[in-house]
Amino acid sequence: MADQAPSQAELIVLKQLWASGEQSAREVHERVATVTDWSYSTTRTLLARMVQKGLVEKRDSHGLALYEAAETKVTLIGKMVKSFSQKVLELDGSLPVSAFSDSKLLDEGELDELSRLLEEDEDD
Fold this sequence. Notes:
Helix 2 packs across helix 3. The chain folds into two domains: 62 residues, Winged helix-like DNA-binding domain superfamily/Winged helix DNA-binding domain (Arc Repressor Mutant, subunit A, Orthogonal Bundle); 51 residues, no CATH class. The chain has a three-stranded antiparallel sheet. The radius of gyration is 16 Å and the shape is elongated. By secondary structure, the protein is mainly alpha-helical. The longest helix has 16 residues. It is 56% helix and 11% strand.
């Protein structure tokens, strides 16, 4: 994860990339515009900044720039949970995964993966 957690705007883009995979800036824009009301240039600027921050990877394919999340949803969420637990709550370990059981973003398999990831971090 980048040195800082993703902003709300960056999370909107990341959720879209996690849901649909690699996309052009135009595809990302068309899918997030209904909830963001951004102009296309705003979406492109945000994607460029996310590449600089290491949140998104960019590759060119036949002259078209394609973007995808640099980390999986579970990996990034795990890092964010651990950071929040330590920096904000001052916990030695992480929040229990059961705290996310009602998440609309994570399915059962992803919750299991998150649980394993957080348990590994606590063992280190």
